[in-house]
Input
Amino acid sequence: MRVFISHAWEDKSLALELSKLPDFVEPWVDVQKLSGGQELDPTIIAAIEDSHIFIVLVSQNSVAKDWVAKEIEWALDREELKNRVFVLPVVIDSDLDLETCPPPFSQFATRLFIDAGDLSQDGMAASRSAIANTLFHWASDWLERLEPKGDSNRRFAEQLERDLVEFQVRLFAVKAVLAWPLAVLVKEESVSHLIKVKDSYNEFTDAFIPQLGEFEDELRWRFGMAAQRGFTQLATFIRNDVYHGAAFALNDVIESINAYDSELSTDSAAFDAAEARRETRVVALEPVMTELVSRTASYVGMLKP
Output
């Protein structure tokens, strides 16, 4: 479990002490000293987005820091997007009244927080235990909801691989038919087969292409930001270079088939031009398909343990 620990620079030693959590927790504690009014560094944003939990150490020091408030606001936005608990406040100042704190700190008065005001050695140990127990409880709850039958991450990756391969198979089927010469394609039995494979491709892509955006969000939640970035690149290639690119250009061949009776059957020059375009479209798809297969295999391989 990746955990981001937000804190004021003055509370750095306490942040490091409280970050000594069990092995199932991977804490992220910033080592930079940020100045007042400084914008959130992209590294900070990436670390928050790539974390399963955002812990904020609440004290007189952190309440006075604009950048801590910005980190909290960013994390609360992430919490709303995730539709689950994401922010865990840890109050390290026993004299602090959350209700009188400025926003966004004041809202912590009405939600679960860890009281870590005892700064003694025993107190720190008790606070770490309380944090670890809370994180373990939350993680168990997610596992129960997301993985009631076992490793849902593995099953998700396998289903994603099946969908990506199915997209390739259906597109290969269309390409295989359109690789036939135009003189063959215009025959009734060829047209019938083309309609069948084209409808199969369209039926699948009508659901698959819009779903790519949903896959991106799911991959970030399950595997982290690096996996999401990698899939964004793959999805962009699928949309632009394949679906809206070389695959879409095949429609030119279908238009030629549709124009055969009204135009091409009586105009040999137009027929030859249409045949040349068909060959060009099919040839242009080949390297795109090769790259799609390679990119898919490489990405899916990254997700597998």
